Amino acid sequence: SLLAVGSSVSAVSFVQRVKHWVFLVCLPYVLQRSAMASIHSYAFGRYRHWTERTIRLHGLFPEAAGAGTMLKAVAVSNFTVEQYADAMNGIVEMSFGMVSSKLASLPKLLLVPGVLATKPWLLVAVLP
Question: 3-state SS of 73-95?
Fold first, then answer.
């Protein structure tokens, strides 16, 4: 910890401790978060483009020869292929965002049983 209760630390010593804390704890954390956010964004982009290609190629031009193309259905509707792909991208973005936010909150939820076991009244006071 940076400071202990009841200890007297000079300003120079405190600044040295803060520098140590920033370089050994904060900077690696920021770098890790930045790297993981970049990887997450890249993976999501690849998945979104894969779903869009799947709709544009395999949804409108099925591989089964007897099924024909779905372009007839698109031609008589008020929507274009681009609008169908945009709607699917919206669904993919929303569902991916929901799943990733739930996964991000999972470590916090895993702390609840430990808090409940050690300090049940704290949990009762915090949660309405």
Answer: HHHHCCCCHHHHHHHHHHHHHHH
Q: What is the pLDDT of residues 46-77, one digit of tens each?
A: 999 998 888 777 776 666 655 556 666 666 77
Exposed, middle or buried, 5 (CB in 10 Å: 0-12/13-18/19+)? Answer: exposed
Determine the 3-state secondary structure of 13 from DSSP. helix
Please report, to the nearest 10 degrees, the dihedral formed by the alpha carbons of residues 30, 36, 39, 40 taken in order.
-120
Could you tell me the pTM of the whole model?
Answer: 0.59
Which residues lie closer than 8 Å to 115 by C-beta, 6 or more apart?
122, 123
